From TrEMBL:
The protein's required cofactors: FAD
GO molecular function per UniProt: cytochrome-b5 reductase activity, acting on NADH
Main enzyme class: oxidoreductase
Binding site for FAD: R91, Y93, S111
Flavoprotein pyridine nucleotide cytochrome reductase-like FAD-binding domain ranges (all copies): 37-134
Family membership noted in the UniProt record: Belongs to the flavoprotein pyridine nucleotide cytochrome reductase family.
Organism placement in taxonomy: Eukaryota, Fungi, Fungi incertae sedis, Zoopagomycota, Kickxellomycotina
Stated name of the protein: cytochrome-b5 reductase
Membrane topology: Single-pass membrane protein
Keywords: FAD, Flavoprotein, Mitochondrion, NAD, Oxidoreductase
Length: 281
């Protein structure tokens, strides 16, 4: 497996306004086939994070396909497959607030392909793909451990839970690690949600290195995760883990390619968590 180098974010907007695209344009999402989408904008977010914004329209004039797309999006956490048509490979990225993040592998063909694109180029995508089923009120307390752009599925679920009246009793704790304080993606949005829902959302920021005024500096340790998950109740609560391979290996063990979660290992297993207590993205 290739080592993770710099990180990039791939973001796209699902257009909810029918007047942005002309009726004859058929740049619509479908989970069954790849469709080319036009790159509208590239923007540098942090020293190692890039935003790619595409023009993507929701399915129209096709009731069955539109129903399928909406049904998947409303069923839990979801993702998009992005293909490098030059070598016929793809990677999966998770949308965040109708955008999606991904990690950059320095030797990965898809990373090179994406970073080599220019505004006006087209990139093939398919989706949405359900990555984690979720029903309102399914868990009493959701503990999230995220690193880098692994915040993507967490942000997606946080936004969903806090906005759903049926989830009004669900609490969320987020431990979010970044390389430096400047590398914390979506901090403004997360802080705003934490203020608006201070009785339901608790955020712990952690950075690998300073300078910083944050209290947590370093890497996940058994004591940190023990303190973070204090109060965890098996059967009612769940721990979600998402991030770069080194973090995943340390905290929960890697998730293999495909639907399998793989065996639980790492710190969470040392602390006594069971396979059913943890979900790995």
């Amino acid at each position: 497996m290739e080592a993770i180098g710099a990180t990039c974010a791939l973001l796209y907007g699902l257009n909810r306004f029918t007047d942005v695209l002309k009726p004859e344009v058929k740049e619509c999402l479908t989970p069954t086939a790849y469709t080319p989408f036009t790159l509208l904008e590239k923007e540098k977010l942090t020293h190692d994070t890039m935003r790619f914004r595409f023009r993507i329209n929701r399915p129209r004039h096709d009731g069955e396909r539109e129903h399928t797309v909406d049904e998947i999006i409303q069923s839990g956490a979801w993702a998009i497959d992005v293909k490098d048509h030059m070598v016929q490979t793809y990677r999966t990225y998770t949308p965040v607030d109708m955008h999606m993040d991904g990690e950059r592998y320095p030797r990965g063909s898809l990373s090179r392909f994406l970073h080599g694109t220019r505004v006006g180029d087209q990139v093939e995508m398919r989706g949405p793909i359900l990555t984690m089923p979720y029903k309102p009120g399914q868990h009493k307390h959701i503990y999230m451990v995220a690193g880098g752009t692994g915040i993507a599925p967490m942000y997606q679920l946080i936004d969903r839970v806090l906005k759903n009246p049926e989830d009004k009793d669900t609490k969320i704790s987020l431990l979010y690690g970044s390389r430096t304080e400047k590398d914390i993606i979506y901090r403004e949005q997360l802080d705003k949600m934490a203020i608006e829902h201070k009785d339901r959302l608790d955020i712990w920021y952690m950075v690998d290195q300073g300078p910083t005024e944050l209290p947590l500096v370093g890497y996940p340790t058994p004591q940190l995760l023990r303190d973070f998950t204090k109060g965890f109740t098996g059967g009612k609560d769940i721990v979600l883990v998402s991030g770069p391979d080194p973090m995943m290996k340390c905290v929960s063990g890697l998730r293999p390619i495909g639907p399998s979660q793989g065996p639980l290992s790492g710190i969470l297993r040392e602390l006594g968590f069971r396979q059913r207590d943890v979900f790995k993205f």
